[in-house]
Amino acid sequence: MPITALKGEAIASPAADAKAPAAKASAAKAKTAEIVRLTPARPAARPNRFAGYAHSAAVAIVPPFVVLVALLGLWELLCSGPGATLPPPSTIWQDSYDLIVNPFFVNGSQDIGLGWRVLISLQRVAIGFGLAAVAGIMLGVVVGQSVWAMRGLDPIFQVLRTVPPLAWLPIALAAFRDSNPSAIFVIFITAIWPVIINTAVGVRNIPQDYRNVAQVLRLNPLEFFVKIMLPSAAPYIFTGLRIGVGLSWLAIVAAEMLTGGVGIGFFIWDAWNSSRLSDIIVALVYIGVVGFILDRLVAGIGAFITRGTAAA
């Protein structure tokens, strides 16, 4: 009996062992299926672009707006008391309401809104600055490429660029005998120097590897200028243009005060002679806003054109 019982147990154990792996596999599958059912996959959340744009706009707008409101409040507080020599913002709004809300009115050849006056001044700036940009880039390329040109012209440029813009006005009036071309010349002579200097620096800083490639490819001077020089020096050129356009706007306002006409500069001088301080302050705001727009415009064009360049 003991022997038979031992044999029975020995015979029964292989069958049980054969069924055990199948049972374990079934249990594992059931457990895996159960886990999958309990944790279904969820689609990834898409980034909210509008929220990102709104945050960027708030960061760019809110701080200047808060500072502006604080400055206006302080200005109103300091200039509202007795003995104040400057008008507060509330008085400026009352005195210059028409200039603020309607910048493009026309009541005659001389009585026009500040918007028209700004456009007339911008027309002169466009002509003078455009000529300065073309001439400045060409001269800057020559000075940057030629060591002899740099040694001969750079000292002269450094001397002439220190002359104040209005100091050129009597010379321009004597040469052109007219206020409009004289004002354009003052803009030209003011804006050309930063364009020349920055262009020359950009040309001198072209990597030697680029010059070697141009020699290997046997590029002619025009191909080298278009394919190598301009892309490499573009960041420097636009830096000079950005400085030049700001100086042009400063020069035209000062020149128009002396030459007359219907520009924004002459409006400020005429308002001063008529003791219209509120109108002067409004005109100063126009000048500042337009100058900021011109700077941002040239900077934006430069950033777009110089994308991917080696020096950018």
Automatic annotation (TrEMBL):
Residues that span the membrane, as ranges: 50-75, 125-144, 156-176, 182-203, 249-269, 281-305
Highest taxon of the lineage: Bacteria
Domain ABC transmembrane type-1 intervals: 118-298
UniProt main location, coarse: membrane
Pfam family, one: BPD_transp_1
Any one of the GO CC terms: plasma membrane
Compartments, record wording: Cell inner membrane; Cell membrane
GO-annotated molecular function: nitrate transmembrane transporter activity
Coiled-coil regions listed: none
Recorded topology in the membrane: Multi-pass membrane protein
InterPro entries the record matches: MetI-like, MetI-like_sf, NtrB
GO biological process, one term: monoatomic ion transport
Keywords from the named record: Cell inner membrane, Cell membrane, Ion transport, Membrane, Transmembrane, Transmembrane helix, Transport
Protein family membership: Belongs to the binding-protein-dependent transport system permease family.
Function: Probably part of an ABC transporter complex. Probably responsible for the translocation of the substrate across the membrane.
Name by which UniProt lists this protein: Nitrate ABC transporter, permease protein
Source organism (scientific name): Ancylobacter defluvii
Chain's gene name: nrtB
